[in-house]
Amino acid sequence: MEKNCAIPAGMRDWLPDEACLRRELINELLDGIALWGYEEIMTPVLEYYQVLTKVEDESGPDHLYKLIDRDGSILALRPEMTTPIARLAGGKLQGKPPWRLMYGAQVFRYENIQAGRQREFNQVGVELIGQKGPEADCEILALAIEALQGIGLANFTVSLGHMGVLRGLLESLPWQDQDLDKVRNLVLEKDFAGLLQFFEKAGLESKRREQLLGLLTQPLQAAEITQLMSGLPACLRTALAELQEVMNLLDNYGCSPYIQLDLSTLRSQAYYTGMVFEIYTSGIGYPIGGGGRYDKLLRHFGRDLPATGFALGVERLLLSLPKREKQRKSVVLFGDGSGASKSRIVEEAAALRQSGRAVIAELRGLANDEAAELTRAKNADIIRIAEVR
Q1: Which of 77, 142, 188, 192 could cross-link to 65 by cystine, CB 3.0-4.6 Å?
Q2: Pairwise pLDDT comparison (158 vs 332), residue with the higher score
Q3: By mean pLDDT, which of 6-20, 163-177, 270-284 is the weakest?
Q4: Which residues contact 72 (CB under 8 A, 6 or more apart)?
Q5: Residue 326 in 3-state DSSP?
Q6: pLDDT band with cut points at 50, 70 and 90 for residue 389
């Protein structure tokens, strides 16, 4: 392919029908989220590099697209929306929290390209800033589930975990700072054989190794949490108690059937501090969404506020959903090309647009078969403006 027609790896063009479906899906999600009292917010595509690297994720800064401004400043394309919104909330939001914020935005992340996993993608998400406790976490989980139900996704699972599990694992070890990343990566990759070897090298006794690996690998029910707490490190007990509160409250929303308690669930971003979750559906090898609690991120931007939220991947949702049709069907108006016909077409098109219909007004004279061909190509309705005598 010639360079003037090619696009960078991990990017894509959106043809009219595809772009329409994507925009309709984003709007549908935001309309539903707004019913929970969330207000839309937007940040620049470009941020200062040091803003985005205040709290790096497990891949470090290599996932960022960087460029140099003319004044020498290092800039980067935003790889997600939580950090930019935390930066905005730290300096610009007025009034008293909590703030309920939502967004639909493009983000850019340099990562391996696979189905549903591009380097430019769209996210719809929310941030609930300034409220702590299981009530806020439950709101976020219930809102994510309702948003997916609202767009017609029937089969999905919310895998629920807690970042305190990671700290609890390390509390059992004579660990160094670098061990945090090692253990986190092993759990993120579900490399439990590697984690077992790590525990062995750290000198953890056999019984404790089996206990900790069992927590990460066995299916759990909320009713089992209390009996699991005996003999566990303090961080793990705290994490389990918080998850139990969240699970109990979720019954009020009727969301429990979607929840799978999985203590191996983590998020790659280092700013998460509490409850975390990822959303999976059949046929997609990666989460279609996820989020959790991040109570320390806003400290980096001048405000010490708790926060929780989630993001949904729009492209992954489009892959997951049944084939969707455009919600708005156009109308083709045509006539014989006479001056009177053109005037009538313009008048009728304006009236239809006022009523909310999309209209293609063909002022050039078209034969019936030409108009029919255009209508088929656009999957539109057709109206002939009769000749005016």
Answers
A1: 77
A2: 158
A3: 163-177
A4: none
A5: coil
A6: very low
Q: State yes or no: pLDDT of 321 exceeds 50.
A: yes
Q: Long-range contacts: 250-253, Cβ < 8 Å, 24+?
A: 250/138, 250/141, 250/142, 252/138, 253/138, 253/141, 253/142, 253/145
What is the C-alpha radius of gyration for the chain, rounded to an integer number of angstroms? 26
Single-letter amino acid, residue 124? V
Read off the pTM: 0.86
- The answer to whether 313 and 289 have CB atoms below 8 angstroms apart is yes
Q: What are the φ and ψ backbone dihedral angles of 47, each rounded to 5 degrees?
A: -125, 160
DSSP string, 75-94: EEE-S-SHHHHHHHHHHT--
Contact between residue 126 and residue 307 where contact means Cβ atoms under 8 Å apart? no
Are the C-beta atoms of 281 and 156 separated by less than 8 Å? yes
For 183-272, list the strands marked E by DSSP.
259-261
CA 332, CA 231: separation in Å to the nearest integer?
A: 72
> CATH number of 16-320: 3.50.50.60, 3.30.70.1070, 3.30.930.10, 3.30.420.270?
3.30.930.10
* Beta strands across the sheet bearing 120-129: 39-40, 99-108, 120-129, 307-313, 289-293, 275-280, 157-162, 259-261
Q: What band does 59 get if pLDDT is binned at 50, 70 and 90? A: very low
Q: In this predicted model, what pLDDT tens digit does every residue of 143-201 receive, in sequence order?
A: 999 999 999 998 999 999 998 887 777 776 666 556 667 877 888 888 888 888 888 88
Query: Angle 234-250/164-171 helices, nearest 10 degrees?
Result: 160
d(CA 382, CA 374): 9
CA–CA dist 289, 273 (Å, integer): 18
d(Cα 30, Cα 307) in Å, to the nearest integer? 20
